[in-house]
Amino acid sequence: MYNVVVDVLSSVQSIRQDLTSQEHLKRIRKEWQMLARMLEKIIMWIFIISTVAFASFMLYDTQDPPIITNEVMRSKST
Asked: Where are the chain's structural domains?
């Protein structure tokens, strides 16, 4: 009878340890997911800001457009 009780207790303890380790892994997984979401948002905002800045720079450039004529093309090819 005593051996049966000891076996049951050891089984219960092993199940409890498995459950606590699974909960720990779930918690770690959720923390990594939160970190990944945060990094994804930061990278998205960096991309949006740099895209808008570059597009603004390209659209509002005051430099004269390059003039390509036949004379320029001939002088470059020789």
From this structure: 2-63
Q: How far apart are CA 39 and CA 30, in angstroms?
A: 14
User: What is the C-alpha separation between 56 and 22, in angstroms, rounded?
Assistant: 51
Q: Which tens digits make up the pLDDT trace of 6-54?
A: 888 999 999 999 999 999 999 999 999 999 999 999 999 999 999 999 9
Task: Please give the model's pTM, rounded to 2 decimal places.
Answer: 0.59
47: Cβ contacts below 8 Å, ≥ 6 apart? none
For residue 35, the SS3 value is: helix
The C-alpha atoms of residue 58 and residue 65 are separated, in whole angstroms, by: 12
d(CA 36, CA 44): 12
